[in-house]
Design brief:
The structure holds two protein chains of two kinds. By secondary structure, chain A is of the alpha/beta class. Helices cover 32% and strands 16% of the residues of chain A. Chain A is built from 17 helices and 19 strands. In chain A, the strands form five sheets. A five-stranded parallel sheet of chain A has the order 5-4-3-6-7. Chain A has a five-stranded parallel sheet with strand order 17-16-15-18-19, covered by helices on one side. Chain A has a four-stranded parallel sheet with strand order 11-10-9-12. The radius of gyration of chain A is 22 Å and the shape is globular. Helices cover 31% and strands 16% of the residues of chain B. Chain B contains eight helices and eight strands; from the N terminus they run ββααβαβαβαβββααα. Classes of the chains: A alpha/beta, B alpha/beta. The interface between A and B is large, with 80 and 57 residues.
Chain lengths: 497, 198
């Protein structure tokens, strides 16, 4: 390595060498204005009930039409109940917001996968399922976890409601180009270490603001080895280290997932698309503003102990004794909120709630992982364990595979799709003071309900915790029990829709 | 959007790092379909007990402090993209947030609503906290055109960065939407020449 660098004569990269991110960005610049902002074109605009009503109002107040209504798709997810979705929503404010979405979509003629639709679900779950999310696209939504769609090699990011209105009115945004960071994970993940552990590990290394100002490309053998579901989990949490988004170069895994989906190109157009998609990778000499490398073998099953997603540790290791001075106020405030002490081990902590769901981990692969572990087992009597599928399609698939019965026998309640207890806008709230191991993406104070204490983890760690009723050394447990049971669980559910 | 040229105000200190948008405005208060009224739930769970009584130790309930400037720890506004966070701060009377850095989406949302995210170095931020905690009535002058934060007790101007386009928007009260709608022809021309359209 050293020799190679030393001998390289004047390493001037080819002029055209570009990162994947820059290839897609450059293809979407309508024009550049003084001061460095670009008029940036958006291919796909996803909307939901919480961040769109004020944007529709603004459009109406200004007397503007939707510029490209066919590039918009809507769903109701944040507020919806996860029981009895066939009945009217009981909460008056939630109902009025969902009704407002329906009304706006009718008025402006926007395609809506609303409550009761057989393809309804969390916006970041149904986009990929429907084939709306494709490589090389630019995708926005008034939701920070829009970064999920980057798993397909798209530039996808969350926007505010003023920007939702801008895209409605012009299909464009005014943006300055973020810096680029590449995070490479070499090697292969250990058995039982999942995509969720991988991203929690990265965020713990970089911190909750460590990638602010950057757009991240995830690369390396461990990332290549992930299924589309796993890649979505990784890209989903990019925002939790401050990154504007994250993306992964598309490959055969991506193409196989997409082929045949309702919005995916068909026939000759599929071939054309494929030819283009195969050009979407970072050139060998492309330069990044920051590069980070980790070894997959160093990653263990993870958990968070604090009140931001950067406060993560391997489950088998104790909470740090201290952190850098610049983080000290937040660290002690977080531990006080969580009821933990510096240097304390989490092993043995009793857990009363387990939530499996959210745009991070509610896909069929996640439900299969949980079912594979809990088959023939029982949740601990004191634990309330709910599983909220990401979409009606995931729910139906789970039922078709008989997972609903496995889960029910183990004492887990399979609900109807929505964002649910990830942000507790509906009635799925964790009680004040209770500990919840959650497969979602944020452990902020009160995120799952006022006073709720959230510990973020993978679906597998969540399933094991529900059965044990307390936090256990998952890595040690897995060595003895899980490896043989989990065979075959990573089969892609994609083709079966 | 209202014009923002010069602000003279004291500041309210919130020396906590990584303040996320769930603290600024919890999700359960996002059910309104208009932009108004979010200020009363600003920092709801830090500011009030579950029964609605003010928490005396929270800075917004401390009569020592007042003003249109919020002084906050680094990485302010991380988390969700909810623009309601910017609306809530603005509705509660804030016009500037000073921090040593801001989460990207919050920064954009703030600027789109005439709320200035003013970034200073860690060192300056710590000195500002010390100054305000010692002398809560300390006044500051923020001049957008000059891109300067004037601290009278230090007799010093601290320059801050601001995107030239966003600066014009603040000074004139322009929204991006006005600009973008006027780009219609260029956008349509772009759509026509795309190599690969989905």
């Amino acid at each position: 390595m050293t020799d190679e660098v030393a001998q390289k004569p004047n390493p001037t990269p080819p002029i055209m060498a570009k990162t994947l991110f820059d290839k897609i960005w450059d293809a979407h610049v309508v024009s550049s204005i003084a001061g460095g902002q670009d008029v940036f074109y958006i291919d796909r605009h996803l909307i939901h009930e919480v961040t769109s009503p004020q944007a529709f109002d603004e459009l109406e107040a200004r007397g503007l039409p939707l510029f490209r209504r066919t590039q918009m798709v809507a769903t109701a997810d944040h507020n919806v109940p996860t029981r009895n979705q066939h009945l009217p929503i009981e909460d008056e404010l939630s109902r009025s917001q969902v009704d407002k979405l329906t009304e706006n979509c009718e008025k402006f003629d926007v395609e809506l996968y609303g409550l009761g639709h057989q393809r309804q679900g969390i916006v970041h779950v149904i986009g990929p399922e429907l084939g709306l999310t494709q490589p090389g696209m630019t995708i926005v939504c008034g939701d920070s976890h829009t970064s999920t769609h980057g798993a397909f090699g798209a530039i996808a990011f969350g926007i505010g409601t003023s920007q939702v209105a801008q895209v409605m009115a012009s299909q464009c945004l005014l943006l300055s180009r973020p810096r680029r960071m590449r995070i490479t994970i070499d090697g292969q993940l250990r058995p039982g270490v999942t995509a969720k552990d991988l991203i929690l590990y990265i965020i713990a290394q970089l911190g909750t603001g460590g990638a602010t100002g950057y757009f991240v490309e995830y690369a390396g053998a461990a990332v290549r080895g992930l299924s589309m579901e796993g890649r979505m989990t990784v890209c989903n949490m990019s925002i939790e280290m401050g990154a504007r988004g994250g993306l992964i170069a598309p490959d055969q895994t991506t193409f196989a997932y997409l082929q045949g989906r309702p919005y995916a190109p068909q026939g000759e157009r599929w071939q054309q698309a494929l030819a283009y998609w195969q050009t979407l990778y970072s050139d060998a000499d492309a330069e990044f503003d920051a590069e980070v490398r980790y070894d997959a073998a160093d990653i263990q099953p993870m958990i968070t102990y604090g009140t931001n997603p950067g406060m993560g540790i391997a489950l088998s290791t104790p909470i740090p004794l201290a952190v850098a001075e610049s983080e000290a106020v937040g660290f002690s405030k977080a531990l006080q909120y969580m009821g933990f002490a510096p240097g304390e081990s989490l092993l043995g902590k009793e857990i009363s709630h387990v939530f499996i769901g959210s745009c991070t981990n509610s896909r069929i692969e996640d439900l299969r992982t949980v079912a594979a572990y809990v088959r023939g087992r029982q949740k601990a009597p004191h634990v309330e364990a709910i599983i909220v599928p990401g979409s009606k399609a995931v729910e139906q698939q789970a039922r078709a595979e008989g997972l609903d019965k496995v889960l029910a026998e183990a004492g887990f309640e399979l609900r109807e799709p929505g964002c649910s207890a990830c942000l507790a806008m509906n009635e799925d709230k964790i009680p004040a003071g209770a500990y919840c191991v959650s497969t979602s993406n944020r452990n902020f104070e009160g995120r799952q309900g006022p006073g709720a204490r959230t510990l973020l983890a993978s679906p597998l760690v969540a399933a094991i915790t529900a059965v044990e009723g307390r936090l256990v050394d998952v890595a040690a447990l897995l060595e003895t029990t899980f490896v043989t049971e989990s065979e075959g669980q990573l089969v892609d559910a994609a083709a079966s829709f | 959007m209202e014009k923002f040229e010069v602000l003279r105000s004291s500041a309210v200190p919130l020396p906590v790092e990584n303040v996320d948008t769930d603290q600024i405005i919890p999700a359960r208060f996002l059910k309104a379909t208009s932009r108004e009224g979010f200020g009363e739930n600003l920092f709801r769970d830090w500011r009030y007990q579950p029964d609605g009584q003010p928490k005396v130790d929270f800075v917004l309930n401390n009569p020592r402090y007042a003003g249109q400037i919020l002084l906050a720890g680094k990485n302010f506004g991380c988390g969700s993209s909810r623009e309601h966070a910017a609306w809530a701060l603005y509705d509660a009377g804030f016009r500037v947030v000073i921090s040593s850095y801001f989460a990207d989406i919050f920064r954009g949302n703030a600027l789109n609503n005439g709320l200035l995210p003013l970034q200073v170095s860690d060192e300056v931020l710590q000195r500002l906290f010390a100054e305000v905690e010692q002398e809560p009535h300390t006044g500051f002058i923020i001049d957008v055109a000059a891109q300067q934060l004037f601290v009278p007790v230090w007799e010093k101007n601290i320059p801050f960065d601001l995107d030239p386009y966003k600066k014009e928007c603040l000074l004139h009260g322009y929204d991006d939407i006005d600009f973008l709608v006027n780009q219609k022809e260029a956008i349509e021309a772009y759509e026509q020449q795309r190599v690969w359209a989905f």
